[in-house]
Design a protein that fits this description.
Blueprint: H1 2-26, H2 60-68, E1 86-96, H3 129-137, H4 167-187, E2 200-204, H5 208-221, E3 232-234, H6 248-267, H7 269-282, H8 286-291, H9 294-303, E4 310-311, E5 314-315, H10 318-338, H11 340-364, E6 372-377, H12 379-388, E7 402-410, E8 413-423, E9 426-427, H13 438-441, E10 447-448, H14 449-462, H15 471-475
Parallel strand pairs: 1-6, 2-3, 2-6
Antiparallel strand pairs: 1-7, 4-5, 7-8, 8-9, 8-10
GO molecular function: phosphatase activity
Keywords: Glycoprotein, Golgi apparatus, Hydrolase, Membrane, Signal-anchor, Transmembrane, Transmembrane helix
Pfam families: His_Phos_2 (PF00328)
Length: 480
């Protein structure tokens, strides 16, 4: 009996404490929800938390998986975000091609068996994949600038050819295109329903993987588009420099940068030991193995969950991969510190940035051509642009990376235009060198367009040092 009374008393006390706690929460006398760092969930500054918590120290496998960009859940993005009184005027999209088969093979090993045909019910899956294949099969008579008209419009080999886009690469860009469609067409009505050919600007290098990536993104963006309205221009240079590719000083910066890379590799005894071990496994000289760029093939194995190759002498393994990938990460870190790559980037990225602001300037004048521009390119295209913009903390371009320039008009002040820069869905506008301090002086969530114009027309040359005030002089500067 005594035990029962004590039990009832404890139960009553527990109920009373629960009631008091709920009452205090109701009247906001104690916090209802607190983040791990002690900040209220409603007041946290981070808008787009990473879906996976980043490791406290650099993890080469984690970095490699980010690079793979394996399609999974729908991506959250910050594209198209602006106050209601801003009108979207034009959008300029730079992409790296999607996941591809390696460009190099590890000597004396079997190539990874990746199927480059497109199968609708095979992972990675996309609801528009089957329709994409059907639509591409109708585009054989499409009018593309030579030599693009000789390239296949989608990957179709049972065993991938070297550098060929995979199904993963197609799905990555179908997702990109669908995401941009939901934001720029459905929400902001960037293009009218009866859009015309001159409202698109499409350009790609002469590789099948860049053309096919551009078409996949375009199909996600404009499903079942009219082939008669589509024209891809061919860009011979990976820098998209058109008629401004001759630049001796840029090449000198590149030579110095390559020398820096070489010296860093020489200092890494663990890297040389790893290359030596791998060379013994495949029975080739270490120099030959290194020249075969084994990390390219190993990344394909990792991204597609295929075992690393083996021979009778042993197996290439994850420890080998970690050492080489860690060196890549260290190389990127030193590259930012030494600034030689920045010099190369400022000159390498200037032509394409100059073209872009030219299109933006025409849009600010009310012209309705080229409202949506798409450049389908490579890592060696995006990386210099990111560096030139001052985005030093940006990760190396992953498969299907996207860099977007948005041009906006203030409806309340129609003569004022602003830009936003987004990298893989993250707003990096105020991380750029031309606008990193603007938000301290202005409450507007974007950057004045004239800041970008001034950067491209003048400040890029100032950053190089010397007295050059234009691209030609900077490229031919004496005494560099």
């Amino acid at each position: 009996m005594l035990f029962r009374n004590r039990f009832l008393l404890l139960l009553a006390l527990a109920a009373l404490l629960a009631f008091v706690s709920l009452s205090l929460q109701f009247f906001h006398l104690i916090p209802v929800s607190t983040a791990k760092n002690g900040v209220s969930s409603k007041s946290r500054k981070r808008i787009m938390p990473d879906p996976v918590t980043e490791p406290p120290v650099t993890d080469p496998v984690y970095e490699a998986l980010l690079y793979c960009n394996i399609p999974s859940v729908a991506e959250r993005s910050m594209e198209g975000h602006a106050p209601h009184h801003f009108k979207l005027v034009s959008v300029h999209v730079f992409i790296r091609h999607g996941d591809r088969y390696p460009l190099y093979v590890i000597p004396k090993t079997k190539r990874p068996e990746i199927d480059c045909t497109l199968v609708a019910n095979r992972k990675p899956y996309h609801p528009k994949l089957e329709a994409f294949v059907s639509h591409m099969s109708k585009g054989s008579g499409a009018s593309f600038e030579s030599p693009l008209n000789s390239l296949p419009l989608y990957p179709n080999h049972p065993l991938c050819e070297m550098g060929e886009l995979t199904q993963t690469g197609v799905v990555q860009h179908l997702q990109n295109g669908q995401l941009l469609r939901d934001i720029y067409l459905k929400k902001h009505k960037l293009l009218p329903n009866d859009w015309s050919a001159d409202q698109l600007y499409l350009e790609t290098t002469g590789k099948s993987r860049t053309l096919q990536s551009g078409l996949a993104l375009l199909y996600g963006f404009l499903p079942d588009f009219d082939w008669k309205k589509i024209y891809f221009r061919h860009q011979p240079s990976a820098l998209f420099c058109s008629g401004s590719c001759y630049c001796p000083v840029r090449n000198q910066y590149l030579e110095k940068e390559q020398r820096r890379q070489y010296l860093l590799r020489l200092k890494n005894s663990q890297l040389e030991k790893t290359y030596g071990e791998m060379a013994k496994i495949v029975d080739v000289p270490t120099k030959q193995l290194r020249a075969a760029n084994p990390i390219d093939s190993m990344l394909c194995h990792l991204c597609h969950n295929v075992s690393f190759p083996c021979t009778r002498n042993g197996c290439v393994n994850m420890e080998h991969f970690k050492v080489i990938k860690t060196h890549q990460i260290e190389d990127e870190r030193e590259r930012r510190e030494k600034k030689l790559y920045l010099g190369y980037s400022l000159l390498g990225a200037h032509p394409i940035l100059n073209q872009t602001i030219g299109r933006m300037q025409r849009a600010t004048e009310g012209r309705r051509e080229e409202l949506f521009a798409l450049y389908s390119a490579h890592d060696v295209t995006l990386s210099p642009v990111l560096s030139a913009l001052g985005l030093s903390e940006a990760r190396f371009p992953r498969f299907a990376a996207r860099l977007i320039f948005e041009l906006w008009q203030d409806r309340e002040k129609p003569n004022e235009h602003s830009v936003r820069i987004l990298y893989n869905g993250v707003d990096v506008t105020f991380h750029t060198s031309f606008c990193q301090d603007h938000h301290k002086r202005s409450p507007k969530p974007m950057c004045p367009f004239e800041n970008l114009v001034r950067f491209v027309k003048r400040d890029m040359f100032v950053a190089l040092g010397g007295s050059s005030t234009n691209y030609y002089d900077a490229c031919h500067r004496e005494g560099f």
